[in-house]
Records
---
Amino acid sequence: MGRSSFLHRSLGAALAAAALLAGTPALALDTDDAPQATAPADLVTDGEPAGGATPAPAVDPTAALAARLDALEKRNAELEAQVQRLSAVEAKPAPKADPAAAKVSLANGRPTFASADGRFTASLRGFFQLDASRFDQRRPGPLASDFRRGSLGDAAEADRARDLGDGTNFRRARIGVEGKAFGDWDYNFLFDFGGSGVESSGVINQAWLQYGGLKNAKLRVGAFAPPAGLDDATSVTQNQFIERAAVSELVRGLAGADARVGAGVLAAGERWNASAVVTGATVGQQSFDEQLGFVGRAVFAPIKSAKTVVHLGVNTSQVINPPAAGPDVPPVGAAQNVRLRERPENRVESVRLVDTGNIDADGVSALGLEAAAQHGPLTVQGEYQTIKVERRNSTLSDPRFDGWYVQAGWTLFGPPRKYSMSSASFEAPKVEKPFNLKTGDWGVWEVGARYSVLDLNSREGAAGAAPPVNGVRGGEQKIATLGVNWAPNNTVRFQATLQDVEVDRLSPGGTAFGAGALTPPAGAQVGQKFKIWTVRAQYAF
């Protein structure tokens, strides 16, 4: 007898016994204790009951018991049939999933759709960063005596540098979709409505297609930001500070930066990372002949463990052919201007305080060194860049510029930053215990410090005098930054920084900043010192 049949019969027998005991009167087994009904002799006459009553018909106890047992057997059969039906329902296998049905998930607030076999996916991606800044600056004076200036040839910036504007700005507001198709192909469409100083009406930030079927490499084409260094390779939603170091921002803009059209290979292994991308213009940039450039990077991690990481790298950004303003008509051809300028690591105010002005060039070459280390909650990194501009006028010497930064971060609460070999950069700590007042959890807290230098002077000459013929007075910018970050969960992040800015810059004279009082005398100090307080609120999914 099978186990199921045994259980069914046992259950049926138990139910029958319970019913029998509940519904059948008890039988007296000891006749000596049973009361006996005997009629007294004087009540019986001629066999009739006294008083003329009709006697009750005699009841056969055996027949009554048999009827009761028949009813119980019928009920037992019905119960056994019901148990068998229930068992059949429980044993019935669950219906098989439709292999063509899509899967939907919402990890960390990001909606993702995927085919059942995983070969097709589409994830909605978006984030915004809202910044607010206050500039602690000396009050402005008349142009004739207050020589603080901004970009060359821009009267508005030259004037505005004396009174940098406090305010707010959506630094980034991006929305798009990313995923894969047919298993080996990846894609990304991302639009940005943020900006520097003022928001945009919407521009392409990324639009690329990538083949990922190779073992250690991916082939990508479209509009994207090729990694130009360690600071540049770090995601903008996971940076230690609100903005990149000035030198990193400047170098990435030579042949890389957001929305740069290009094609190349990005590869990575267990302890190495390498990329090589040929680039053109950025989306929306117009010129007679588009720029041709190259961005390359190679990284090796000699030490890479769960608690300790050492990162060493080199990178280069090359402008092979600068954008031309017109046709290349002999003997001179149209100007191919290159201009190096940068903001004080802040985008609420759009003014640039260091600026070389236009340099007619055949090309630009930037070479960089990277170094970083992590041990537990401590992360340290730095980069050095040297930049050479090759003039088209061979009678003038080629100017050289440089810059560097070093920074350190410490995770106070929560896990440390994580090193990713796929990007050869550090990711923000993951929040394992989201902020919750009831449980006393506070998410992740970080503190950091950075010092950066960007020197855009080249043979600038002495103060109080005109610059040499081949000199460039772009200025030197030094910034010390203190920062604190709080991530209550993995989608929300708040950052705050205090920056101490010092710009040392001599006036080129003439009409470099504009006519009249806009341009201070040659050799006059047009730099300044001030502080910036900035906070950021970020939501990313």
Note: The first strand starts at residue 103 and ends at 107.
---
Amino acid sequence: MRSRPWRSASAIPVRAARPWQSERDTVTPRVPQALPSPSVPWGPYRPKAFEGEVVPFRVTAFREGHDRIGAQLRLFSPSGDESLHRLVALEDGFDRWEAEVALLEQGVWRFRFEAFADDFATWEHAASLKIAAGVDAALMRELGAVLFDGAGAEKSRPAAQRGVLAGAARLLRDPTVDDVEALATVEDPAIAEYFRERPLMSLVTLGDDLDLLVERERAGVGAWYEFFPRSEGAKRLKDGTIKSGTFRTAMKRLPAVAAMGFDVLYLPPIHPIGTENRKGRNNTLDPQPGDPGSPWAIGSEAGGHDTVHPDLGTLADFRAFVRAARAEGIEVALDLALQAAPDHPWVTEHPEWFTTLPDGSIAYAENPPKKYQDIYPVNFDNDPDGIRAEVLRVVRHWIAQGVKVFRVDNPHTKPLQFWEWLIREVNTADPDVVFLAEAFTRPAPLQSLAAAGFQQSYTYFTWRNTKTELEDFLSGLAHDTADFLRPNLFVNTPDILTEYLQFGGRPAYRIRAAIAATAAPTYGVYAGYELYENVARPGSEENIDNEKYEYKLRDWAGAVERGDSLAPYIAQLNEIRRAHPALRQLRNLSVHWSDDDAILVYAKHLEAAVSPDGRADTVIVVVNTDPHSVRQTMVHLDTRVWGVAPGEPYEVEDLVTGARWTWSDHNYVMLDAFTEPVHILHVKEQR
């Protein structure tokens, strides 16, 4: 028997819907529906999910007066499986209805909301009030008996249910049965469950057929690590110059990356680097002999975007590197930077792909106040067809080498229309390819890039450091944009060393890693973070002696031996992520409270019905966001989120230290930034 392509606590038997036919030609349906979700606010794009993601399907539905309505979700998987799920009212005062479903099959799903007059719920509500008050009791009992007669006559209803309903109808009509006993039948939870599964529906109103794209799990879940292959295995020679590392020497670093628990390895551009206008150390304009230049200045006489840098090895060496990474459980992500060094072959072969200034020179890239004299930006309007064909060729070339993940450099400086086209073309042929947008830009272009197709996006996470900032930011990622934007919470990049890390000391590195690893299912670390590299170039948010412009020689093993590495803690975080499915979800984050303006509290809960192992999973994270202090405070939790009544005790285990406590909804904590600034607590079996 084929397994179902979904998990849900709200599934009910599939029955055909018989829509109510209106005699009036109106736009408004009989039972109005609005604001269906998942949805995308940025245009006619499909909302997205990833395999295994628990998706909240929501709709606003209501009707006139006091009669009750119901709502259900009809789902069609890509392989044709049809399922029906009963929505529950959120009771938020806004007539919102919801059902959560874990989607397990890749491809385009179809879904439709169906609202209806719930005849049983309307009667049950009125009967409960009136019979208890002695008002119209006989009438309400007869109306209920009539409902039960009709439901009992449904041949699709199980025989056992029909028998119970027939008995209930007789009881309601029996004059020897008093109203107290009759009221017990009205409020019988077993009978209510019969009608939840097979409601008595009238005025059935069908919503529009909608699409939802479910992509492979890697599109939404992963622990990323970034390193420059030229630095891995690089050696200082006797004359003081440095010999570049290669793909072969970089392979030796792969076991350590895997041991830290990372499953995606992102490589900055691996192509030939231009010599004209090459940048020197620390972004200077006077490179010295041996300076390797910025990998983002792509192209030289050795080749362009489809070539590997000769110092790194050959294309065969790169394929061997990809295979070695795969053997360690790691996918290789490649940088896709659509720009050219002045000596890139494109410049001579296709000068029309660039912007020519009045003096005949080609405009180099600028992001004021930054200037990139070693890079020419592509002008996508001069020859759009030619540029499209070339970029698609390049992407397919690297897919053929085994690459399925691309990190796209500055996509917001290229037309949105181009990205929609490229991602659609690539994913139509190979839906497993994932694109990450380095969209450090304004909210509108950042979100539009995600809506247009990018599977993941960098975010403003590096600049959200206080409790208040993080509460708003993380809640927004989980609930406001999750239908189309999947965040990748990189803690640092070659371009970003925030003041928080520069001046927060080692506690800051521990704090940020813990938040990134637990708040979103995808996060990333750039090499050197585990060594607490925190010295910036004066006046900037970049590391001094930046690896973009030079080789970086690091003593990884020695740092671990000396106790000067965060690698063991990062490995522990990734182990926790693998063990707890709640942390591999995005939309399940709930923000809780503390009495201290630096203590951040959030939880991630996964119901047993949608969990991959059939067990509920709850992780509570309590963070001292001030890396310079010891904080003591009370934290306040809405324990109903994970099914514990307020005031009831339950056991928690700190997944970092192993300590156990009995908690309730109000709890004392002390977090020392210099020892353990973060509690990552697993809710154990409740009492």
Note: The longest helix spans residues 384-400.
---
Amino acid sequence: MAEPAAYIFKPHERPTLPGSPANPDHPAARRRGYFAIGCLIGLTGGLGNALVTVNLNFAQGTLGLYSDEVTWLTAAYFMTNITANLLLVKYRQQFGLQPFIRYILVVYAVTTLLHLFLHGFWTSVAVRAVSGIAASGLTTLTILYLMQAMTPPKRLAGVMIGICIPQLATPLARALSPRLLDWGDWHMVYWFELGMALSTLAAVMTLPLPPSEKSKAFEPLDFLTFSLLAPGMWLLIAVLSEGRIQWWTDREWLAWALIGGIVLIAAGLIVEHRRANPLINTRWLATHEIVRLMLVASSVRILLSEQAFGSVGLLNVVGMINDQMVTLNLIIVAASIAGIVVGVLTFDPADVSRPINVAVVLIAIACFMDAFGTNLTRPSNFYLSQAIIGFASLLFLGQAMVIGMARMLLAGGTQFVSFVVLFSISQSVGGLAGNAFLGTLQVIREKFHSNELVQHILLTDPIVAARIRASGGAVGGVIGDPVLRGAEGTALLAQQVTREANILAFNDIFFTVGLLAVAVAIWGLLIRMSIRRRGEVSPIILLQRKLAEMAKGGK
């Protein structure tokens, strides 16, 4: 029996880029399948890191680590996650999409399984590093599947949803992890992650993506560039992760790591700048439009650290843990989904920057709402403000991704690696820089407020003396010696002063981020005014015109 002839794709069905799937016309049922699988892949990739990040204290106790050691778990993940795309994009182009999918998912499942048996520090770091590589591929798969779920006119909506889905993982992990830990301690978290990985593997094998076109992509100098840029980024991430914990000026290795990172990254960019066919096109990245986009994207990502560090940190200070924040995080998840929906439904190709400006204004409003915390603040006080930030974060992210994709496609698609790497750096490193900045500010302001509060505490003050006696009386049932009771009362008062100083420091953080958000909003407004004055056309409109001309030429 003769084999069926291979399907020949129509001009509009051909892959947009080498290594990406073709775009055939799908029936509605298959589109729904692609959409469901795309959402599953996105959540699987995001939860892999989120479940560890939101339970670092638990991991620290389980593995017997110090606070600076446990931070290496997330640092190792980001080191490989950010730099993996330097080679993975070209691997997909040269060897095809299906091997890429199979290897990525199998590696992810195996590394998740290893978590159940490896409990040492270095083995855990190695497993997190491999997980970062796998998650980098899953992010790409999410976008590719969701693009297949959309009709051609709505394919950009697939890009917007695909980049946003993994961002739901952090609040979802905070909502899920308390019950998982109750059911089976730390191992249950990894069993859940393994189940997600195997479900994703089964789903993509059941409904694979359309075939892709292959082309020779790798060049020898690509590996030289990787050997310079990757270690440089690793050193930079190490500094941002450990700086505020080991403190910036207390450890000499931080300075040397920062210097080494800058030198290696600069050397890699010099090599790329002189190449005829660069892995990262420095000339394109240095254009006014791309620099402006990445500066705005990085700035907003730093502002969004208010949610990951500020609100959670303040609640931890007043004694709240993930168990008490389940409802808050479910509200954030719902608001974030609303941000995706609103961003897709209100997408205006002629004015793609407006939602970004709206998102920044919403962040400013939420930060000022949070800037009045007290020791009576509870998760319910953050319901509205954190819902606003969750909504704004994904309203911004989808629009920024679409603007960058449009700029990349207008350049002919040859800048795909450059764009993917730069956007990943702007978001991941931006988030790390935001946490490092806010963490440093919190420590500095806590010391300031602690000093100010202590100045007003005098043992000769009757109110202070009564407070110490009351605190000592609370332990009177177990401490009979009045001198020891007095010392314990003084220690408890000192703890209360430290708590209040931390609360005031977090209020300063909220207010500072609010002011920065106002500054970014004003900057965004000035950019919009400048674009209108120059009569600059939206990149989405330019892309639509280019595609229309290509379609007309094909006919």
Note: The chain has a mean pLDDT of 80.
